[in-house]
Design goal:
Shape: globular
Distance between the termini: 31 Å
Largest sheet: 6 strands, antiparallel
Order of helices and strands: EEEEEE
Number of helices: 0
Radius of gyration: 15 Å
Number of strands: 6
């Protein structure tokens, strides 16, 4: 069985994908759709309906849901609890 986990990354216009969670101005925004623009730029459409145009030199910090082998998908994003 494969579980899901969040992986942090620095994205550019070449590597951004639908479903990425990008931090913009302290807010986390999920990319719902994207469109290729001239010169390598992309227009991102977030779940909220807001738009963001990024150019080839734009760098963004993002989270991407990735699949990992093994584990329980229901607990993939759960925080660890330590015994005392």
């Amino acid at each position: 069985m494969k579980a899901a986990a969040l992986d942090g990354a620095v994205l550019s216009s070449a590597s951004v994908q639908r479903g990425d969670i990008i931090q913009v101005g302290g807010q986390q925004c999920r990319v719902a759709d994207l469109f290729q623009l001239p010169g390598g730029a992309k227009r991102l459409v977030f779940d909220s309906g807001e738009l963001l145009t990024i150019h080839t030199m734009t760098r963004l910090v993002a989270l991407r849901l990735v699949r990992v082998r093994g584990g329980d998908p229901a607990h993939a994003l759960a925080t660890r609890h330590h015994r005392r």
